[in-house]
Amino acid sequence: QVQLVESGGGLVQPGGSLRLSCAASGFTLHYYAIGWFRQAPGKEREGVSCISSSDSSTYYADSVKGRFTISRDNAKNAAYLQMTSLKPEDTAVYYCAARRAALCGSDSEYGYWGQGTQVTVSS
């Protein structure tokens, strides 16, 4: 069964950190670009970060640049999103997605999606 499962979300105070994980099963992440997306209540889904299949290129939305770091461990068939200096506006459900291609793309090009993990930044 092909599956992506996110974990690591939770409640954190402003300025805090969280590390999200994305575990793949039923397929090999090595051949896929991995994206992280988020959706806040009442807002459209937005791309947060992406990493190419070869780990050679990464992308960050301007809103998270310098605070978030994407990585992958193909040996563990997993990807990660390290989030630091979190702000209340980072509150959202975070999704990981896999695109059967070397490079990142738009969200419509990702064929596999996880169920999401809630991140709440609040004091």
Principal-axis shape equals globular
Task: Output mean pLDDT.
Answer: 95
Q: How far do the termini sit from each other?
A: 39 Å
Helix content: under 10%
Structure class: mainly beta
Low-confidence stretches: none
Could you tell me the number of beta strands?
11
Question: Radius of gyration, rounded?
Answer: 13 Å
Main β-sheet: number of strands, strand sense, barrel status? 7 strands, mixed
Strand content: over 45%
Strand/helix succession: EEEEEEEEEEE
The total count of helices amounts to 0
What is the compact description of this entry?
This protein is mainly beta and 123 residues long.
Written account of the structure:
The protein is mostly beta strands and 123 residues long. It has no helices and eleven strands. It has strands at 3-7, 10-12, 18-25, 33-39, 46-51, 58-60, 68-73, 78-83, 92-99, 112-113, 117-121. It is globular.
Topology of helices and strands:
Blueprint: E1 3-7, E2 10-12, E3 18-25, E4 33-39, E5 46-51, E6 58-60, E7 68-73, E8 78-83, E9 92-99, E10 112-113, E11 117-121
Parallel strand pairs: 2-11
Antiparallel strand pairs: 1-3, 3-8, 4-5, 4-9, 5-6, 7-8, 9-10, 9-11
Task: State the main characteristics.
single chain; 123 residues; mainly beta; seven-stranded mixed sheet; four-stranded antiparallel sheet; 0% helix; globular
